[in-house]
Amino acid sequence: MRTIHYSLHREDGDYVAQCIDFDVSSFGATREEAIANLREAVELYLEDLPTDKTGPVITETCVGEFAVA
């Protein structure tokens, strides 16, 4: 079993779930749907991942914002 980290945000009318461990994302009309779709997308991604590649080890996450000119 592998723990996967993700972020979730609202974009227009959908929720977008973005995997932090791998470059995989998905969306859905609800939070639950977006996360379920992300889970499926990550599972499919991992099926094609070489067995010697484990991905990054995430130890800390932070969400923030900043302004640009």
Give a verbal description of the structure.
- The protein has 69 residues and is an alpha+beta fold.
- It has one domain: 2-Layer Sandwich (Double Stranded RNA Binding Domain).
- The chain has 1 helix and 3 strands.
- It has one helix at residues 31-48; strands spanning 6-11, 14-19, 25-28.
- The protein is globular.
- The termini are far apart.
- The mean pLDDT is 90.
In terms of quaternary structure, the protein is single chain
Number of alpha- plus pi-helical segments: 1
The strands making up the biggest β-sheet line up spatially as 1-2-3
Order of helices and strands: EEEH
Number of domains: 1
Q: Which strand-content bin applies to the residues?
A: 15-25%
Indicate the CATH topology.
Answer: Double Stranded RNA Binding Domain
- Let me know the number of strands: 3
Biggest beta-sheet profile: 3 strands, antiparallel
The proportion of residues forming helix, as a percent range, comes to 25-40%
